[in-house]
């Protein structure tokens, strides 16, 4: 409210000042006009001869048209005195008119300022009042006011900001959900295994928790770090396969002989994406052979993780990358975030993710990226 009053006060002062300067300009122009008023013409310097109107009429009437103008009665005036009286008369009447004009302009300016303030501030206050709703994740659109065209950019930016905030809140909720469920369950199992001293399984659970935490770190980094690293997908795939080959023996790496182009991204993200695809293949591949491929296709860098498991049903193939989505027939442990993380990482790095699969015939998960252009 204080800011509004301050704004309106400044606007009023501005308009009043404007009115004052306009009036002063009128006064100056009037003064210049008066100063430059043409002087009466006379043959005698500083004097002029004036004929009495009454006597002039009488002379013509009684003397006839033959009466010479030089024979008519005349009066002689000092031109300076006449000019002073003339200026004085003009100023006495002109100042009053100018002051009246100033008063009218000032009143009109105040009325206009109030009207402008109402029409300008009202939509701004409407936008400001929407901010609490934006913070709560609600999308807000500003329409229907007189300055819609002028404020369309503000309304559009606010709407985009609200959508961005909503998206960030959803991502934060996703991470919180992931932590509260996945990690809580893992810790509960870990506690039980420690009590039973089943050390081999304990190590596996610790590795799983470490992997999950890596996913969380990768997700958290997406808003603060740009995809500005040069990444070699062949090396990323080799590192991931090297780690998982110690846990799953039936895994194979195929690197294209043709040089794989570098891409622009984040190496940590790429590594976590490949690891999640491998983990997905291990979970749902029915112990089949897993092949991790990295190759060049038409100048694009491609990663493919292939298994010969049960595949993906046609009905759910479009939903498989949704957050926390898991098919009804997929009863493995996990909380359904892995493929969504793959999708997010690929999208952030300017690539695309898709799957080629038929039920009962395995699945091929692809990540495709545009080659890095070096000038």
TrEMBL record:
Residues 178-373 form the Histidine kinase domain. CDD domains: HATPase (cd00075). It catalyses: ATP + protein L-histidine = ADP + protein N-phospho-L-histidine. Pfam families: HATPase_c. One of its GO terms (biological process) is phosphorelay signal transduction system. SMART domains: HATPase_c (SM00387). Gene3D superfamilies: Histidine kinase-like ATPase, C-terminal domain. It comes from the Bacteria. One of its GO terms (molecular function) is protein histidine kinase activity. This is histidine kinase. The lineage of its organism: Bacteria, Bacillati, Bacillota, Clostridia, Eubacteriales.
């Amino acid at each position: 409210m204080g800011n509004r009053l301050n704004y309106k006060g400044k606007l009023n002062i501005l308009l009043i000042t404007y009115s004052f300067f306009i009036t002063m300009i009128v006064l100056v122009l009037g003064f210049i006009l008066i100063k430059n008023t043409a002087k009466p013409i006379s043959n005698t310097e500083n004097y002029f001869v004036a004929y009495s109107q009454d006597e002039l009429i009488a002379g013509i009437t009684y003397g006839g048209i033959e009466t010479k103008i030089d024979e008519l009665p005349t009066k002689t005036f000092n031109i300076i005195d006449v000019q002073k009286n003339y200026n004085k008369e003009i100023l006495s009447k002109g100042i009053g008119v100018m002051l009246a004009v100033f008063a009218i302009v000032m009143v009109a300016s105040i009325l206009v300022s109030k009207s402008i303030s109402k029409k300008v501030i009202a939509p701004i206050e409407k936008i400001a009042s929407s901010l609490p709703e934006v913070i709560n994740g609600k999308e807000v659109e500003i329409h229907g006011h007189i300055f819609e065209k002028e404020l369309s950019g503000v309304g559009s930016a606010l709407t985009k900001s609200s959508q961005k905030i909503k998206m960030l809140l959803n991502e934060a909720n996703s991470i919180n959900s992931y932590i509260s469920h996945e990690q809580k369950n893992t810790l509960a199992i870990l506690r039980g295994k420690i009590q039973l001293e089943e050390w081999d399984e304990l190590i596996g659970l610790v590795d799983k928790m470490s992997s999950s935490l890596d996913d969380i770190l990768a997700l958290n980094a997406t808003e603060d770090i740009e995809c500005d690293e040069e990444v070699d997908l062949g090396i990323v795939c080799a590192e991931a396969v090297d780690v998982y080959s110690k846990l799953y023996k039936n895994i194979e790496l195929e690197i294209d002989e043709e040089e794989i182009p570098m891409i622009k991204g984040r190496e940590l993200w790429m590594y976590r994406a490949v690891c999640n695809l491998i983990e997905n293949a291990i979970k749902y591949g029915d112990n089949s052979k897993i092949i991790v491929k990295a190759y060049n296709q038409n100048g694009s860098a491609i990663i493919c993780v292939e298994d010969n498991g049960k595949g993906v049903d046609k009905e759910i193939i479009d939903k498989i990358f949704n957050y926390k989505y898991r098919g009804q027939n997929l009863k493995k442990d996990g909380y359904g975030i892995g493929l969504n993380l793959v999708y997010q990482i690929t999208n952030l790095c300017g690539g695309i993710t898709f799957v080629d699969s038929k039920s009962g015939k395995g699945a091929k998960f692809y990540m495709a990226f545009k080659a890095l252009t070096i000038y």
